[in-house]
């Protein structure tokens, strides 16, 4: 089988204007970036305001291995499968960060015969949205330090500054830095940090904003420091929110690309799910839901991470309601969760994972059961998708299906979309669509699970929200708050932000905060070492364990293999 890059480069792509017209976009609502990608004017939402929404289908997963479970590939393959059975369907996914692209993970366009194309554009600069996020964020950083340099009229206490700098590359040397060194003309010396751009609050806001004016208001609410008399300092105070909005006026428009089979793909925003909310934009979903019958969107990492945040942050703030959740699993990963073999990125697959072992699969499927239960906490129906590999056996598939159905899944279906494209996901598509339609509509007449509910109410105290996520989603015995964390939460509440949802920053490699604890761990507690207000994005982040907001590159970065061949084509992307 050819590599994913070779498959993508051999694809016969349709003109993006043709795809836009096919789903009901007017010519003036598409801003072309060459023949195969475009931005979508937000005017389409005004034109189609009265049209009912299609069904939102959320694709999530078990606790992944470092190799992932093929969640993006399943999202794209399922959309292709739905289109093949006559359901007008679009994909809505995140744009990847250059950090993982050139690091361990590689790109995020899917793989095999279930990909977004053009693959190179998707994984690299696309239409420049991530660069706009970096520019807007760092403009605020420059205004902040310039304010200190020119007398600090607001009375900012430098030690309270929480606004970092960002760059869309994994660079561990920038995690902690001292700036302003040199002469008095070089600024005020202080400690700071660089984060990867997708961890920026600007990126989180891009994914949650509902229009350009909402974006502008959210930028103004961002808190970057406190004054000497303990008042919050916002970007509105620094008079930079308007200029940031101008830098983002094109980035706020969703991008339209296509699947390998010529279906529409909305690509917009890219926050990480272990340190941010991990979902593509509200605006992309809203536009897509007006144009097609079904939208397949994914949430980052396992159901305890991006999917929990999809439900309690994106749905809460964006007014979106899913009709069904698809939980993706691979048999090799379930074996690993069952105590067999190890999976290490960049290393050959452990041979033990290719040996038939239904009992190990059944043990490891306790993780799948918990993730299904997590989605059922929101009263959203679930279908388990078994992302198939050639070494899977009938007895192992039967074990997965048995556990999934016992945990509350409506169905468990094998899919071969990686080698077979949409044809390999038709059975999954039929099952998912039947479940999505069976829920009918919500009380307000929109599509979505009619009994959908949030995990916690807005009025619950912040500390209790954190404990609720830890105990009900992760299965922890409780939470251990570090020194000063409860005081920080109390101050956030006293500033008027008690009603905000929680964004947990936690390892994605375990239901616990210890990445070595696989399966469905018990008897653990969740340590919360810090909490921070993201007033612009509209949530409070609780930092669990040793979570970093700037990744590092491995000893052999994936970017070592990326190059241009003799004909000028990109090689080495994966």
Produce the secondary structure layout.
Layout: H1 4-9, H2 16-22, E1 30-32, E2 38-40, H3 43-47, E3 55-61, H4 71-84, E4 89-93, H5 98-101, E5 110-111, E6 114-117, H6 119-123, H7 129-149, E7 165-167, E8 177-179, E9 190-192, E10 194-196, H8 201-208, H9 212-221, E11 223-226, E12 232-234, H10 241-247, E13 255-259, E14 264-267, H11 282-291, E15 294-298, H12 303-318, E16 322-329, H13 331-337, H14 358-376, E17 382-387, H15 394-406, E18 411-415, H16 417-420, H17 426-438, H18 462-474, E19 478-481, H19 485-497, E20 502-505, E21 525-534, E22 539-544, E23 563-564, E24 570-571
Parallel strand pairs: 3-15, 3-16, 4-14, 4-15, 7-10, 16-17, 17-18, 19-21, 20-22
Antiparallel strand pairs: 1-2, 2-13, 5-6, 6-13, 8-9, 11-12, 13-14, 21-22, 23-24
What keyword list fits this structure?
34% helix; Rossmann fold; 574 residues; twelve-stranded mixed β-sheet; Formyltetrahydrofolate synthetase, domain 3; Domain 2, N(10)-formyltetrahydrofolate synthetase; alpha/beta
| First and last CA, distance | 14 Å
Shape by Cα distribution? globular
Low-pLDDT segments, ≥5 res: 440-445
Domain count: the total is 3
So, the CATH homologous superfamily of the largest domain? P-loop containing nucleotide triphosphate hydrolases
CATH class of the largest domain: Alpha Beta
